[in-house]
Structure formats: structure tokens, C-alpha cells
Write a structure and sequence with these properties.
This protein has helices at about 15-45, 50-65, 70-80, 85-90, 95-100, 185-195, 200-210, 255-260, 265, 270-280, 290-295, and strands at about 5-10, 110-115, 120-130, 135-140, 145-150, 160, 165-170, 215-220, 225-230, 235-240, 245-250, 320-330, 335-340, 350-355. It is of the alpha+beta class. A hairpin with a 2-residue loop joins strand 9 and strand 10.
């Protein structure tokens, strides 16, 4: 599969969104079709009813109060794609809606960063195999800062690095108070990528975001690294250990939000992935490029955990998890490298190297 690299530019958020929607409207509709089925399947299995348009528009209201320019950009996407605003909002709030629907979260992402003489890190991005064709590379300019990375069709931001050398890595968490109604976590990542000129600004944006669902955003710069754990209970910051390593999977590490842990109680494999990766990094002097990162993340069940995730050949939607992408970030070089697939299939020729566009003054 040839992965699309979407280049979006423009100082006006609505026009920038319109360009995105116009050029990717068919893909947005296809992605929505899968997500619509996923929401319904999860809600049916959990025995709950989910009013997706109402939930989506609730997150629009929360976002309008926090970052109205992001709502303008989503409105532009909807206009350009010829779909209702609630549909675009639902894609951006898919984490929040899935929390309400009670979706199972087996699989998911693993992040490893080392900071020291050279800061380098990255992650696996694990998601539903049925959505393997629903993500793309993007380079965005026209906001305060240009940025590049990966995202899903219709979703404004996810994993990336901006021209100031601020990188964002992204893992979903689960808290017993998770729901919808706050600012979608994907829009928080988007605001960091387009607006944070420093580590402190990035941590402040993430920590102050009024979210209603949980995630951890690992902020990576040349000099500082931190994982900011977000939940309805508030924000907590996790720093690298004394050797400079920061490992995160899909459970809370800070004890305060961990008191409301949901994901780890339901899907304890997150602890296995953390244990294996944490054990591997201790005593290592650091990471030597994307290939070294992929080798570290290349762990399958026979190695003690499924860090590199492969979907079973059959099963209902919502149960077929796979590592859709492997990402490495070098913030000093303002460089992101993306491998389409899991780390076990990466080699020197499979990485796409991205650098963020520069803001035009």
C-alpha cells in the first residue's frame, strides 16, 4: 500500500480544514463507516446506547471554549468533505466515544524514549486492523508552527514533531471516570504540534487541557522528556528514570490517577509489555537510530509480551489488533521516521523520513 502524504497549508484554520476535507473526503467517509460500525459493535457488546452525534457535538462545545480555531478547522474539514460537522467531530473524538461505548482495549501502543547526550525515542501505534488503510502522513503549515507526523483521515493530529523540535508520542490509557464531553485528546495533540515552541509550553498545553478521557502524551525535546498522563482525575507528569529511560504502555504510572485505573484491570497485558521493555532498557547506553528502536520494540508473545502486534486472521471488528505503524523521533534533528507496519518488518529501506515545514513569516 502506498501511504498518502497529505500537505496542508494556510493561515486561516477554516480554509486549511476545507482543503483537507476537499482532498480526502472519500477517505473520511470510508473511515467514518468503519468507526460507525465499531461504535455500534462496542456499545452492543457492552449493553449500552450511544448517541454519537450528541456526544460528538458535546466535544465541539468543549473545544470551542478551549481552542476555537480547532473547531473552525473541523468545520472546514466538514465543508470540504461534504459531511456534517458531527461526523468530523466524532472522528476526532473517537477515543472519547469508544470510552462511553465500553470498547475493549487489548493491544494498543508502547513507547520508549532515552534522553541524555542524544535524545531519541518512538513507539508502536497499535489499532484495529480494519483501519489499516485509514491513516496517512501529514505535513501542516500555516499555524503558529509547522509540523509533520501521522494521523487518521479527518483527525487533525496525533503523533508528530514540529519545527521547534517538540515531538509528541501518544498512548491511550483508561480511567474509571472516562467519558465524552471534554476536549478530545487528539485535538490536544494537534494544539501542541501547531503551537508549542518549547517543552514547557507543550507540557502546559497538555496539563491544562479539560479532557474527559484518558491518554498519555510523551513530550520529547532535545533537552527534556516527560510523559503527561491525562484523565478526568487531572494531569500527572512522569519523568525519565536515573538512566534517562522513559517507558510507557497503557496503564497509569503516577499513583494518583492509578487509583482509578481501568485499562490495566481489564487488559493486564499492558503490564507485561511494560515489564519486558523496562527490563530490556536498563543498562543500555541509549538508542542508535530508528533501526535500534525497532529492534528493541520487536517483541512477540514468545518473548514475554506482544509489543509488536499481529491481528488474527479472523474475528469480529474490535478484536483484531495490529501494529499499524512504528515511529521514531529525533527532536534535535527535527526528524520523524515512520515505518508502515510493525517493528519486526522494519529494515533500513522501509523508513519514511519526515521533517516539518517551516512557518512562513
Amino acid at each position: 500500500m502506498s501511504r498518502e502524504h497529505l500537505r496542508v497549508e494556510g493561515a486561516d484554520p477554516r480554509r486549511r480544514g476545507h482543503d483537507r476535507g476537499r482532498r480526502t473526503g472519500a477517505e473520511i467517509v470510508r473511515a467514518w463507516g468503519t468507526y460507525s460500525e465499531l461504535f455500534e459493535t462496542a456499545a452492543t457488546a457492552a449493553g449500552v446506547k450511544v448517541d454519537v452525534p450528541a456526544l460528538a457535538l458535546g466535544t465541539v462545545s468543549a473545544t470551542r471554549a478551549w481552542a476555537p480555531e480547532l473547531v473552525a478547522e473541523m468545520e472546514g474539514v466538514a465543508e470540504g468533505a461534504g459531511v456534517p460537522l458531527w461526523m468530523v467531530a466524532a472522528l476526532n473524538a473517537r477515543t472519547e466515544i469508544l470510552a462511553v461505548a465500553g470498547a475493549p482495549r487489548a493491544g494498543e501502543c508502547s513507547t520508549v524514549v532515552h534522553t541524555g547526550t542524544r535524545t531519541l525515542g518512538g513507539q508502536t501505534w497499535d489499532w484495529h486492523e480494519e483501519l489499516a488503510g485509514a491513516w496517512h502522513i501529514q505535513s501542516v503549515s500555516g499555524d503558529a508552527l509547522g509540523f509533520t507526523g501521522i494521523t487518521e483521515y479527518g483527525i487533525l493530529g496525533k503523533i508528530g514533531v514540529n519545527e521547534a523540535g517538540v515531538g509528541v508520542l501518544f498512548n491511550i490509557l483508561g480511567h474509571e471516570d472516562d467519558g465524552a464531553g471534554g476536549v478530545p485528546v487528539h485535538l490536544v495533540a494537534r494544539r501542541v504540534l501547531g503551537g508549542a515552541a518549547s517543552f514547557a509550553e507543550a507540557v502546559s498545553i497538555v496539563s491544562d487541557a479539560p479532557v474527559s478521557a484518558s491518554t498519555v502524551m510523551t513530550i520529547v525535546t532535545a533537552g527534556q522528556v516527560a510523559a503527561v498522563e491525562l484523565s478526568p482525575a487531572g494531569a500527572a507528569t512522569v519523568r525519565p528514570d536515573e538512566e534517562g529511560w522513559l517507558v510507557h504502555t497503557n496503564h497509569f504510572l503516577d499513583p494518583v490517577p492509578a487509583a482509578g485505573e481501568l485499562r490495566g484491570r481489564l487488559e493486564p497485558e499492558t503490564y507485561d509489555r511494560f515489564r519486558v521493555l523496562d527490563g530490556q532498557v536498563h543498562g543500555r547506553r541509549g538508542l542508535d537510530g530508528a533501526g535500534d528502536l525497532a529492534a528493541l520494540l520487536n517483541v512477540h508473545p514468545d518473548g514475554g509480551a506482544e509489543v509488536c502486534c499481529h491481528a488474527p486472521p479472523s474475528g469480529r471488528l474490535g478484536t483484531r489488533w495490529a501494529t499499524l505503524a512504528t515511529i521514531a523521533v529525533d527532536p534535535a534533528a527535527r526528524r520523524l521516521q515512520v515505518h508502515d507496519g510493525g517493528p519486526c518488518s522494519a529494515n533500513p529501506s522501509t523508513w519514511t523520513t519526515l521533517t516539518p515545514p517551516r512557518t512562513k513569516n
